[in-house]
Design goal:
heterodimer; A: 387 residues; alpha+beta; D-amino Acid Aminotransferase, Chain A, domain 1; Dna Ligase, domain 1; Rossmann fold; 3 domains; 18 strands; B: 290 residues; alpha/beta; 2 domains; 7-stranded mixed β-sheet; 14 strands
Chain lengths: 387, 290
């Protein structure tokens, strides 16, 4: 799960990570009053969306006075911001963060994330702030400090020193940085974060460390024990169809293609999307109905897939194990009748009760094409795509 | 011959009185697996069909000589269940449960690191040695006993698809293992490849990967250096959009890392026979392994 920058900064403030003074506004009036309560100008106006790359796209502005704050607030609120992370459709700005300007002397990079291979918590810090960290890692790896923390023993003093001295900071900043890293590590673990990133972390001219940006993602599997984090969910930032699918425990991700597909199991669902592409079409979605789906879930999955108006044809690919083919077939037939299905559908089923499932489909009188195997399914998808 | 499990493996099912646990325990028993015990706290002394239920894994191990645990415990309690099994001294733990928090799995991994136990999963279909033992949730009937192919995969139904195609083409399997779709798991590709390389009956391996992490790249390096048996590789997720988790917690392309293209490239450099189109996998296997 993702949250907004202003929400991440709320968590930072609670955990004594220094951030600029500021507040979130939903309209130009409150933006103005927040700005006027800060300690003078300039102030920064930042669009709040779940995507990076806002600065280059016009989502971050420096205001020299109150009337500029109002002007920028009016421009930003309601605008569609297209950044390199939003995709071509962009994201609508509904909230803006108003913050005091900071006198920046130097920009650093800082992040914490779980490292899959070592099964440790990885802290990354770099002198090259404000830049793409992958690019830094590739071109100037010597500028990056990496520290791996054992999750059982937790963070130790020597590891804090490794980060602080590794960055070659002015001695007056070393103590500040070590305290900050300890607090960030504790925050990361306490809230089951899957990524915590500050880019840039700045050193001000007054020799203070400060988090100018803040990005936190959380481990979805741990949300059951993170009640405070769940409160931060902003469904406006999510695709409406994905929000709908999540109500039925369906794993649905909307994409830009025209061939809808419904599959059981995430790996097979990805492979099915790839098959659609290889057949010369584009997948309209990822949809995993899971191993134990019932007829009702299948019906909801079908309905959600069909409410994407780009969809011109559908491929259903089920390998029946726990999910029996006859259950799947019943769900498909009922859903097709209810929604008055007009689109072509290719059904490829294999596994438990496949004969019963095929019979239900062929007896239904619906226009459902049966594919004997994946190769056959791909050919039929290619035909659909050409129509 | 097979790897990790055979007809002598004695299984204790953790969470055996739950809906999933009882259903799959029965399926495993009807396949011929020796399910000798179950564990559910506070239900010790009960029976699940003919299987005695214990309060703790250590009780089950002491009284039934179970040497493998199969776990269906819900995600919030699963890390605890895995560590309990490791502490009780079983040789193999198969964790089916999906949805364990990453931080919990990291602690599990550190906890079992120096114990003589192998963990398969979590978030996996389990392990099967066709004709001998099914310790997991896969449909048994799609498998063909006797080898000569070993199968290792990060996925569930995608593995069934692969196994089905092998069987349709007359190729049996020695052992099939799902190592799971989570970012932090127990047994990895290399552990399994090594075991298949050393297994006399396994003549070739099918390895099924997907986007996210670099396990396939590391496995490719291992194959290049140490494998003499032919390997077929398949990677799911060529069309997956970056930054999105594709169902499995571990299936995510972050920046330039974890892409299907990079994994396919690494496999090719290790002389793995890369299957680019899943529909052709069975045919490809037939031409290579026969």
């Amino acid at each position: 799960m993702n949250i907004h920058e202003y929400q991440a900064k709320e968590l930072f403030k609670k955990h004594r990570i220094p951030i600029p003074d500021g507040g979130v506004a939903f309209n130009a009036g409150s933006a103005k009053s927040i700005a006027e309560e800060l300690h003078g100008f300039p102030v920064i106006v930042k669009a709040q969306i779940h995507a990076g790359g806002r600065g280059k796209a016009g989502g971050v502005k420096v205001a020299k006075n109150s009337s500029e704050v109002v002007r920028f607030a009016k421009e930003m609120l309601g605008m569609t911001l297209i950044t390199k992370q939003t995709g071509p459709q962009g994201k609508t700005v509904n909230k803006i963060l108003i913050e005091s300007g900071v006198n920046i002397e130097k920009e650093l990079y800082f992040s914490i994330l779980p490292d899959r291979t070592s099964a440790k918590i990885l802290i990354i810090a770099s002198l090259a702030g404000g830049m793409d960290i992958e690019e830094v890692a590739e071109k100037t790896p010597e500028k990056i400090v990496k520290v791996y923390v054992d999750p059982i023993s937790g963070i130790q003093g020597f590891q804090l020193r490794k980060v602080a001295y590794g960055l070659n900071l002015d001695p007056s900043l070393t103590r500040q940085l070590m305290a900050m890293v300890r607090n960030l590590y504790e925050l990361f673990v306490m809230y089951d974060c899957s990524l915590l990133e500050i880019n840039p972390l700045v050193i001000t001219q007054e020799k203070q460390l400060m988090a100018i940006d803040a990005k936190i993602n959380f481990d979805d599997n741990a949300l059951y024990r993170q009640k405070e984090v769940i409160e931060y969910r902003d469904v406006d930032e999510e695709d409406p169809l994905e929000v709908e699918a999540s109500k039925y425990n369906l794993n649905y991700i909307k994409m830009d293609g025209n061939i809808g597909n419904m599959v059981n199991g995430a790996g097979l669902a990805m492979a099915t999307m790839d098959i659609i592409k290889q057949a010369g079409a584009e997948p309209a979605n990822f949809l995993d109905v899971g191993g134990g789906a019932n007829a009702e879930q299948v019906e909801n999955a079908f309905r959600i897939m069909l409410s994407d108006t780009n969809v011109k044809g559908i491929l259903i690919n089920i390998f029946g194990g726990i999910l029996r083919c006859d259950v799947l077939a019943t769900g498909v037939v009922e859903a097709s009748r209810k929604v008055g299905l007009t689109l072509p559908v290719v059904v490829r089923m294999e596994g438990t009760n496949v004969d019963a499932g095929r019979k239900i489909l062929s007896d239904s009188g619906l226009n459902l094409m049966t594919a004997t195997d994946l190769k056959d399914a791909a050919q039929k998808v290619a035909q659909m795509a050409q129509v | 011959m097979s790897i990790f499990v055979d007809k002598n493996t004695r299984v204790v099912v953790q969470g055996i009185t739950g809906k999933e646990g009882s259903f799959h325990a029965r399926q495993c028993i009807s396949y011929g697996t020796q399910v000798v015990a179950g564990v559910t706290p506070n239900k010790g002394g009960q029976m699940m069909d003919d299987v005695p239920v214990f309060n703790t894994v250590i009780d089950a191990v002491n009284q039934t000589d179970a040497n493998c645990s199969l776990i269906f415990v819900p995600a919030p309690f699963c890390a605890d269940a895995i560590m309990e099994s490791a502490d009780a001294g079983v040789d193999l733990i198969v964790a089916i449960t999906e949805g364990i928090p990453v931080l919990d799995m990291m602690k599990v991994k550190k906890y079992i690191e120096n114990l003589p136990v192998r963990l398969i999963g979590p978030n996996c279909p389990g392990i099967i040695t066709p004709g001998e033992a099914k310790i997991g949730i896969m449909p048994g009937n799609i498998h063909k006993p006797g080898g000569p192919i070993g199968v290792v995969s990060r996925s569930g139904t995608l593995t069934y698809e692969v196994v089905h195609q092998l069987t349709q083409n007359g190729l049996g399997q020695t052992t099939c293992i799902g190592i799971g779709g989570d970012p932090v798991n127990g047994t990895n590709f290399i552990d399994v490849l090594k075991a298949f390389q050393e297994d006399n009956n396994t003549q070739g391996v099918v390895m099924v990967g997907e986007i996210g992490g670099n396990a396939e790249e590391l496995a490719s390096e291992y194959i290049k250096k140490h494998m003499t048996k032919p390997v077929i590789g398949f990677i799911a997720g060529l069309t997956a959009p970056p930054g999105r988790r594709m169902g499995h917690a571990g299936a995510i392309v972050s920046g330039n890392s974890g892409t299907a293209q990079a994994k396919i490239q690494a496999m090719k450099e290790a002389d793995v026979h890369v299957c680019e189109n899943l529909g052709n996998l069975g045919n490809l296997a037939k031409t290579i392994f026969q």
